[in-house]
Structures
1.
Amino acid sequence: MALIDLANPTRFLALTARILPWLAIATAIVFAVGLYLVWFAPDDYQQGATVKIMFIHVPNAWLAMAVWAVMSIASIGTLVWRHPLADVTAKAAAPLGAAFTFLALLTGSLWGRPMWGTYWVWDARLTSVLVLFLMYLGVMALWHTVEDPSRAGRAAAILTLVGAINLPIIKFSVDWWNTLHQPASVFRVGGPTIAPSILTPLLVMALAFLLLFVTLHFAAMRNEILRRRVRAMWLMQAHAAS
Amino acid sequence: MSSFSALLLRDMRLAVRVGGGALMGVLFFLIVVTLVPFAVGPDLAQLRRIGPAILWLGALLASLLTLDRLLAADHEDGSLDLLLMGTTPLELVVLAKAAAHWITSCLPLVIATPLLGLFLNLEPLAIGAVALTLLAGTPALTCIGLIGAALSVALRRGGLLLPVLVLPLTVPVLIFGVAASNAAIIGPMSFGAPFMILCALTLGSLVLGPFAAAAALRHGLE
């Protein structure tokens, strides 16, 4: 079966019905492994055990940006190739991305209180992630306001692509503006600067959150497809009754 | 007369007529700038410090006001469909509308800035800096707002959707506009650097805005 077969919503529903339980199990296992590694990871010599918020904060932040990238690719699929499931992908991903962004901001804020002495500061990284959160909410508002799903999909696709400009700004904000948030430690020229004993749990937790996103995303896509079928049936019924 | 200038003149004439709302933006700008001292207190030193920021925020909000009527009015009476079917490239059409919006809504704001700067106890250098940054930055606000206007053109209950979509995208313009103004007043930092970035944002949005808005119109009105 080729990848193109996934474009058929019925095939997609059948495929995801089969693999979704396995994805959920895999997510649970990787979370278990990750949390085990986090439990036995060494404390930071300065921050103590509080550094372990990082194992939740950083994967959420990575996913917040990655989900917008997924939405951007889906938007290109909608506008350029008219892929049947592209706007379903984008619509299902938006609330998940907003949730990850919110969690990144929340855990970062809780981490900042003991470390920096403040819940919030208007530095470049925090501000650009907050703007990303607002843009997620804006895309969700646009989906909610336009009635026809395919028209809403095209409008949201354009908005997503315009907002994709924020992703490099977030990534490089800690390099361009020398402010409070820590500069890049993993994805940087010259390799990561974190010790392996902390880097490994971090990457495992990142994989766990990624699997969580994929599982929830597929489930949300299934719901959206079914929701559209129900809507189509309502419309047919209303048309037949008139 | 080219179609671009015909469309430009048409929109400008429509904007200054009754219901066009061009000078309403200036009035809103004045009201906002008047409201702020009621909120933060009449301390002149404090007003002088936050003056450029207040003027920029007021200009941003005032330029948002007339944006939703930019395309919705044409959509309602059917002229947007005619423009879509015409031979002029849609990108040029929306650029003409953006230019008309800038001339009739944003340029009066820039002209009103010196008077309002006096209300905020800004000195002449500060007033000049704010006016110059507004002149350079308001085209960016118009073009970015154009994207939001195109996305929400056919909505009946759009409401606050347009500001919600547009304002996060205008944050860089706001940041660099105020930074340039403050750099001219206070700074050891040069005025040139943030001003150049502001101009770059304007030039970039002059390209990005019309293309994105035209794509939104084409896809959204099928």
2.
Amino acid sequence: MLTPPLLAAAAAPAAHAAAQQPAIPLSWYLAVALILFAIGSIGVLARRNALTVLMSVEIMLNAVNLVFLAFARFQADMTGHVITFFVIAVAAAEAAVGLALVMGLFRHKKAVNLDQMSALRS
Amino acid sequence: MDPNYAPYVPVAVVSILVVGLAAVILLLNRMLGPRRPTREKGIPYESGVDPVSHPRRRFSVKFYMTAILFLVFDLEVVFIYPWATRFKAWLADDAFAPVALGSMLFFVLVLALGLVYEWKRGAMNWE
Amino acid sequence: MQAATTTSDLAIISPLFIVCAMGLVALLVAVFTPKDSFKGWLGYVVAFGFALALVAVVWLWKQAPLTLSNESLFFALSVDHFGLGLTAVILIGGLLAALTAVDYLPSQRSDHGEYYALVAFAVLGMMAMVMSADMLTFFVALELMSISVYVLAGFKRQSAFSTEAAMKYFVTGSFASALLLLGIAFTYGATGSIRFTEIAEALASPQASLPIAQFGVVMLLAAFFFKVAAAPFHMWTPDVYEGAPTSVTALMATGVKVAAFGGFARMFLTAFGDARFRTGDLPWETIIAIVAVASMFAGNLMALAQKNLKRMLAYSAIAHTGYIMLAMLAAPTSGDGTVWLGPGLIFYLLGYTLASIAAFGVASVVSGNDVEDVNEVAYAGLAKRSPAHALILAVAMLSLLGIPLTAGFIGKLTIFAEVLDGSHNEYLWIVVVAVINSIISAFYYLRVILVAYMRDEAAERPIQLVSSRSLTLAAGLAAFLTLVVGLVPSRALMASGKAGGSLADSKARAASTATVNDVHTEADAPATASAPKATKL
């Protein structure tokens, strides 16, 4: 059989898939998602370029999408898929507001560096 | 080894072959080929049109505006499409059909109001 | 489908609809009127909309708990006394906050109609958040609120302060949203559901994967602490509160906090409220106790050093987060795992909302013509320049401090008594810590009154006050209500108790629809019927 087992499982009915263990275990998906999430959070916390921070937030949200899809797939439940749609839409709205804020910041500072936000001292 | 991974073995073999071959060719090229760089050879598009300006110049904020608008409105399809695929099944249910249609109409109404707002604010003017 | 109800679904969600419609109207008016005309009247329109929604909420309160017959709504929103009570608090806060902006925004040269649309949308998000009965509604409502408030924080576009505050709030806020989502994802993974009641059921079964749920709960807690500005995650608060326009800060300190506390309290108590979990397998109660203590100390000690009124109020908000968290600690549980809340949380939130609006209202008055810094000079000797405003400020400070005869006092008393009763004096130490913190806070609250009444160096170069009837009305009304609720607390306490107690009904409510639910899962996805709900790694 040359078809990769994951594809074969996807073609089979969901109830059948639950009985037959898919090739790639759930923990692998979760590991990838958590690594992505960690990359994103390090980006938010450590990088100083506002655009990089924005992209890191998007990476975090997409990592969560992966978690939702993995769980939904392995539980043969639709809820996770639906949530993913909502997360995508919310992420777009967030990105739009974020880009607008970056533009506003640029107007004041002529730079998009978060280190230069010093008018408010903490 | 887990027998489940057997189908992936050929993929792994091909991957290793491809990467290895590319590495060997590049290495040979570097070791054997003569290198006499000139200015003409260094520019991008050696035989093409000369670049007219610096590629990294700042471009107009209007591009961002369009990008944001596209991003937000494009993604609303994410909700309309699944709704459309289920709508025919919902039509059979007399109690639920008006709700299904009404909620999508409300959704589209809100979107349309957003569009009206943008239009009037001049986000789509590109003089 | 359900037991026949007399109230139709549209009527039940009418508060949400009214506020949404107000937002859309404000948006269209903003764009169809000349750019430099006075937009303050939109503030009155939106405030009227909030009042209308408040009337609807009171009308629904009398019939609650209500059952939505549309299934997708039924599982998304729970219109019980808890949701309606907190919605009322949010609407009062939103109404007064909208009134404070009417003349304040022109004084800051930022009079745009979009402001009121965004306030309406933010309030809509808050209302949906405290009514949400599943994780998805909760998340979308929270984002609606947060995204609107990000924009509001940066509303004074020509000010670098405001833009910076918005950017800081955006970065921390979206980070918190990502943590929240990860938490939701892992609870979904552990339990196979996003509905609060079903999560509770799934966790109670032995199949549930507790490590996954534990990780999820920790992420949810982190997001909660970010949103309510609790101690280890409070760093953004002073900067954002100071930089944002004062009328927005008023909304952030009241509405956002009420919504975050209400929404998360419902989530934790309904979904993870089983006594077995709270201090055992998913020890969120223990974590909240530690964070509450840290917030109280961090807020109160830092507030001592602040000269700027808005910054001081930001640190005081962190301290109050600590007090309010105590109310979540000792939720009473009956034998079958039904959890409810005493009146403390909701009553305290009401008192805090009123006092904060009064304090921030006066801060907007003294921030005069485009002053960025609301420091001591701005309100020194206020009693001589404007006795009414000085009195409002004094009432607000006394209520925040918790002096008898104010709402703040009754709120603190109720929460402390609740914690001691609920935990059988196990949490005595935390109440002692809270009382010590109240004493510390006296130093900076009383100093504000002292400066306003005793000092008069501002006489040499007085700062022009914003003269505004609506602003004075809103702040004065808030201060007046603070006193009323403090003097005759019985009705508010009774309503809060009823609201908190209604959390206990969620279980019965879920049981009554279990059959409906099963039928539909089967119809929608025949294959899932036999799939196991709990996942093992």
3.
Amino acid sequence: MLRLEARSTASDWMRLASPPIAVALTILTGLVIFALLGKDPLKGFEVFFINPLRSFYSVTELLLKATPLAICAMGLAIGFRANVWNIGAEGQFIVGAISATGIALSFGSVTALSLVLMVLAGMLGGAAWAGIAALLKTRFNTNEILVSLMLVYVAELLVSWVVFGPWKDPKGFNFPQTQMFETTALLPVLLEGSRLNLAFGFAIVLLAAGHVLLTRTTLGYKMRVAGESAGAAAYAGFSTKAMTWIGLMIGGACAGLAGMAEVAGPMGQLTDKVANGYGFAAIIIAFVGRLNPLGIGLAALLMALFYIGGEQAQQYLGLPGAISKVFQGLLLFYLLAADVLIGYRILWVQGRPSTDSGSPGAASKRST
Amino acid sequence: MKAMSQLRIQSLTKIYPSVVANDAIDLEIQPGEIHAVLGENGAGKSTLMKMIYGVTPPTRGEIFWEDQPVRIRNPAHARTLGIGMVFQHFSLFESLTVVENTALSLPGGESLSALGQRISEVSEHYGLTVSPDRMIHDLSVGERQRVEIIRCLLQKPKLLIMDEPTSVLSPAAVEKLFETLRLISQEGCAILYISHKLVEIQRLCNRATILRNGKVSGTCIPAQETPQSLAEMMIGRDFDPPRRAPNQAGAISFSIHNLSLASEDPFGTNLNDIDLCVHAGEILGIAGVSGNGQKELCQVMSGETLAHDSSSITLMGKPVGKTAAFARRALGLAYIPEDRLGQAAIPAMSLTENAILTGTVTVGLARQGLLDLTAAESFARRCISSFRVKAQGPETAAGTLSGGNLQKFIAGREILQDPKIMICAQPTWGVDVGAAAFIRQALIDLARRGCAVIVISEELDELFEISDRIAVLAQGRLSPAQSIEATSVEQIGLWMSGLWQEQADAQA
């Protein structure tokens, strides 16, 4: 009989070490999976983890992939710090992409102005989508986890409708996509010979801003207090409603910006597959990164590697594309397991489980 | 030949990873004896009881039940042996009836109506009046405790453990409880009575075992001791009682006028027509048992909940009934709430970060939305040094401090903001005697510097020690305040059952 016993003190060192340990175990398990699928594990490791880092171009591709992930995850992390559980970044990402596309399709040929408007539209669109969850939570005390998640499916239907219907490219051979944006409605490329664009700059600025917000500002402090203890926040007079609004709006605006960066960057158009699971991957990134901006940056790079590695594995090893999702899942699984072991130790108990739970109330409540 | 002992424990030891909670405890109790276990908070009383009740296993040592060695595996095992326990914090389901709650703790197979009949018989026999069909949330705290006791008695225990049973009771209810306990013991059931209240133990218990720092510091017959000698065994040192300088009350700093407010908590207490005022330089004590509107009154005074009418609360001459907590602080209000770890401090954050919690405006720890971390750290240092907080430094996490030290830090944080009005709830709850004396003195000194102080407490001794005037909060109503010289513990005790109106009518 296995039992978990709380440790009296959790080691700070292990808290920092647990993400790298989780990464190492994920890679090891991945190698076992390659072997079980009849592939050479070393070849698999090379294709999955080394090839995406081989050339200048492939590194810029990695950064490009990490950009929307980092932007999304940073926004989510700020809400998570305040115990605002926005699970619907995927939907906010889509609505941000739709809003930006709307601008691109109507004012796309106007230089500079179109991009500024697209950025604003993307952020507002994402924030408005998250705002629905905030409104319902503060008004009717609904659960933001459920509402934001369900709104993902609404957003997916919405994007399908626009690309199958009103915004479908008339010359697009009936594919569910809009026409390509004009070059004036695309984010400028930062490095010659790559696709890495200005959105990478947004991500760096956002991570820095997130760091300042969380450690230096009164607002960030209030959000951390609200996340640690609702009672303390009420005692200090910080409004939990305001925290819910701010947490969801920041998360939504960041996800919307990431959506804008995707349509105005590597895609250059809106399709029904625009989000590609980035909004959900961002949740994993936020936690792997310990809700800390630097950690989020590193975790976003890692997750981008899984995405690109998965594509490479599809191409060169003939593995299914779901392999990236397997790696994402493994990473989250190992991280959560490592986190449990930081706080608890496993004991092997002989015989039947005792009713002892350590707390007298719980013990006495149990009937014979 | 020596008579059989009901329970004997021999060098029982419990070691937790960070602390030795019980160190070689010996204790013996005869059938029908009422035996006190006396000790300060943290002396190891609860750990000892948990081992006897099978909640936690001992590290070393032996337990003998009716002279036979036993290993008590869990509470269910303890109950089959004949050990019953009434915890300080009740474990009753609020939305179930008395009989349903009782059925949950019994082996089962008995119909609810038959059980209800048995409950009525037991409650009648022991004078524990309670109707089996009432919902728990309708019951007063005293009645809930009776349900817990009845629940134990139904299993015909040979040993009943009572953990701080009077901490939630009014003086009249304590009297009734004692009668019941004496009757139970006369029928041969031994009682282990855990408390830190010396007078109660002297009146009720045949023998006492005194714990200090996890060790037995003495055994005695309480009736032959004085409260002073018992206190010395419990604390192990002398401490100075607070000094009160003469009071020079000034103008009214804070007042409440005709305030009625329904509680947001469905099981809370509604406030009914509250009137009070506090002058600069005085301490107003508010006595009463928790659950009589204490929480609601604190929340409405601090601004966590708002009144319907702005003018019903006045702070330094300004109507603040609809002003939120944050803005009231800026006007000079400070507040030490009852719940240290859930409200007044964030356990996972450092003392520096905890200093910021209420100090952003009054101490200037934030400007234009940015935190001043240097100022926050030096403010935290000031709290630590001037209130003699035992902590490694401002970077220590609040949750690692002992109860008394954390409470001193919180008191320091609030007092050093130089408030004009201070509200504090149960300021010395669960705090060791030395820290309690320190905090009481700090509150007196604060008042003498011109602050108006309101202290809400269950401890009458504490209130009589520090208050200038005293009022009682019972069933959501507040009695008129009496000057401390014009009243007595007996009168306030009587008022705690809500009887001041009748008394006033009788005098009229």
